[in-house]
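A sample follows:
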Amino acid sequence: MNKILETIKKHNLIQKKDKILVGVSGGPDSLALLLKLFSLKSKLGLTLHIVHLDHGLRKDSSLDALFVKRWCQKLSLPVTIKQLAYQQVKPKGSLEEFYREERIKFFIQTAKTVKANKIALGHNLDDQAETVLMRLLRGTGLLGLAGISMMRKIRGMIFIRPLLETSRYEIDRYLKRRQIKPCIDSTNRQDLFFRNKIRHNLIPLLKSKYNQNIVEVLANLAESVAYDYEFLDQVAQRSAKGNLTHLKIKKILKLHPAILRLKIRQSIGYIQKNTRRIGFVHVKEIEDLLNHRPKGSIVDLPKGISVQKTRNCLRFYKR
């Protein structure tokens, strides 16, 4: 857990007098994050506000909210808690996607309300390795292999992950030394979500049969790819400058295929505000539109985005 301050300094995650909203589920990772940030509170002049989202998936989930509330009282920290009425909601996509979206919306809304300038989450080194494997198995490119970002702006709010270079083992050992028992979410033991299947089955298999350091190997891969992607993304931004919703065909045909694909993703991200659900197959279809299909042809993408080939441009728009 001593790595946290090193991580904060190395990646410039926190500045003095930041007001940080800390997402705390009550589990080991988020509780350890809360305690470490609290220990740095005076040194860095931080203001902390805790936020907890009760997903309502378990009958006893309200106990987690009570657990978090008691810790906040113990530390004299303000807390905002919300309960999801999950039974009354019918998610269009996966449960994982539904919960992620609800968390982000609630955290950003709360951060704006309390005037926090950053949101801290408790993702750790093992989470990073699991994320890389999940994306690899589902199919991904460089951005997916970059894994979880150490610091990222989402809808105008900065999200930071100070535990991303700290392993789950180190976190558990830190809490045990302090004789602190976190909440244990029973659904984390079930193979209900894809991540749990990776955590409980694939990672242990890879450790025992192939490489006992697989978690560190995958996390190092993510860090390396993240730097590579950042550089290529900057090159793509400087290439074929102009309106991102109207890419000039003559200009983009001169680009290296890697830069062209990034340019396409940038155009989609400009309209959609992110590139979630945009996979390799979608980019390949847009390349086919550019190179082989007649003018007037259209490719429809997820989330209501379309791309039309005109005489001079690829036109990206909301349908």
Summary: The CA atoms of residues 51 and 80 lie 5 Å apart.
